[in-house]
Amino acid sequence: MSTTAESPLAWDISVHDAPVALSARGDLVAVAGAAGTVKVLDAAMGAEIGSFDLSGGALGVALSPDAGHVVATGPMGYALWRRSDGRTTVRESGAWSAAAAWADGMGVPPDERSRGGGRVAVAAGRRVLVLDAEGDELWRTEPAASTVTDLAWMRRGRRLAVAAYGAVRCHERHTEKPVATYPYVGSHLALAIAPTGKWICSGNQDASIHIWRARDGGGLTMSGYPEKVSRLAFDDTGFWLAADGAPDVTVWDFSGKGPEGTAPRSLRCHETVTALAWRPGAAGHLASGGADGTVALWYATAGRPQACLRPVRELDGTGAAVAALAWAGPHLLVVARRDGRIRTYGVPSRTAL
Fold first, then answer.
1. What does the CA dihedral 108, 160, 278, 330 come to, rounded to 10 degrees?
2. Whether the Cβ atoms of residue 271 and residue 292 lie closer than 8 Å to each other
3. What is the DSSP letter of 199?
4. Distance between CA atoms of residues 156 and 193, nearest Å
């Protein structure tokens, strides 16, 4: 792959709205704009499949596992879009909705699975609402101590982790009260759960990453970042965690007993990291984006702890700041820039960059 889009899969369009979030599933890409417009695009060609608006602006967007539904969240509420007929359900609750996450369906009980499309958890102020794909409420959590900042499913959709000031709280299906609480005094900005279910991690306003062992709540803190940590991402193996919070991307090794007492790998390219996305699979390939417009591809698990790595490739470093990155499968990287430009890059092999 070169520094220009030469793959026949690549496309380059403008959505006429500064993007704030990307999601890619199957053959679709969803792009949320700061003004609240959400575009749903064909991943192969870039053609628009549908669009909808969320009053007050957008903060996030997520496609369902079957690529049949989109949820968008924002300062005034949330919206659900259905691919089959373009039906859009908008809920303007006035509650800050910072995040949403679809359950993968494997742990969804039969009575909920029969509704089709899976289920989605949506932050709504200090609560989280769990909805079916049509927007009907299934259950909700009790209010947290403050506004919910992030959430994630565990145990293949059977447990929900919710981050708010002072703790991450976990809820089982239809349990309003948490069944487990993982305390840490501070503002949690990002939540990442290892696919193995072994680790719960939060990126924090106090420039740290806090880590809990899910089984017993034992914790450790990775401090010393020069800036707040607002982006965390585990790879598909659950052994590697990438984080921002510094000019370098840091990558922590969670294999074995975890990262306690170890140093991370440092990926040096950007002045400020603005996006992170692991390539699907177990090869340890990571894409990162920066405020200077650079997009970098990495063998992020190469070398030894404390190694300072350089990118394998840099893509289009002359554009506007990178707003978001997403992989549409293992072969297509989608890049959204803050000037409204969306571009894809074809990556022809799972084993090489």
1. 10
2. yes
3. E
4. 11
As a whole number, mean pLDDT of residues 231-244 equals 98
Residues with Cβ within 8 Å of 218's Cβ and at least 6 positions away in sequence, in order, are: 212
Tokens of 322: 């990178």
Check: CB of residue 33 under 8 Å from CB of residue 339: no
Helix, coil or strand: residue 113: helix
Structure tokens at 204: 């924090």
pLDDT of residue 349: 76
166 Cβ contact list (under 8 Å, min separation 6): 145, 146, 183, 184, 185, 186
The tens digit of pLDDT for each residue in 247-264 reads: 999 999 999 889 999 999
Give which of 155, 188, 185 is closest to 170, Cα–Cα.
155
Could you give the count of Cα atoms lying within 13 Å of 179 in the half-sphere of its Cβ?
Answer: 12
pTM of the model: 0.93
